[in-house]
Amino acid sequence: MEAPRDPGPASRATAGFSMVEALIAAGVLLIIAVGLLPLFTRAISDNATGNDATQSTNNGRTRLEEMLAPPFLHTALTVPAGGTQKEALDIWTQGDPDQTGDSNEGWAAPNASGRGRTLWNRATRVRQYSIDALADGDFDDSDRLSGSAQAIFVHLKEVEVAIDNPKQGSILGTGQGVTLRLVRPF
Description:
Blueprint: H1 9-13, H2 19-68, E1 86-93, E2 106-108, E3 118-129, E4 156-164, E5 178-185
Antiparallel strand pairs: 1-2, 1-3, 3-4, 4-5
C-alpha cells in the first residue's frame, strides 16, 4: 500500500484567497462605496424637497377649495371698505410630536403661542375686479376695485394663496413654497 502523496504547492494555491487578495478586493469595494455615497445623500435631499413641494401644493389647493365653497358675496371673499385686498395670514404648527392627535397641530393665527414649531406660513389674499379688467388680459394693481365699490360692479374675485416654509435653505429640504391663484367669476 502506498502512502498518500503531498498535493504540492500548485493545489494549495487554488484552495482560496490569500490575505493580500482579500485586502485588495476590500479596497476596491471601499472605493466604489465612497463613490456611491453622494448619490444616497442627494436622494435624501431630493426626497425632502419633493415632500416639501407636495405639502405646500396640497396646503395651497386645500385653501383655494375652501375659498370656492362660500357664495360670491360671502364675508370670506369680501374686501374691506377702503382697501383693495383682503389678506388673511395663518401658520401650520407641529404641536407635540410625541403625542398623537395633538390639538395644537394645525392651522392657527400667526400670534398663537404654545402650539409648537411652525412648519408652514400661509397668506390668503382676495382682490376684486370688474369685467373691464380683462380687456388687456392681465390684472394690474390699477384694475383693482376698492372694498367700498358697489357689489353690482364687482364681477371677478382673484384668490391668491401663498405658502412658504420657515426652513427654506436648510440642509434637509428647500422648504419649497408655492403661490396658487384662481379667478372666481360672479
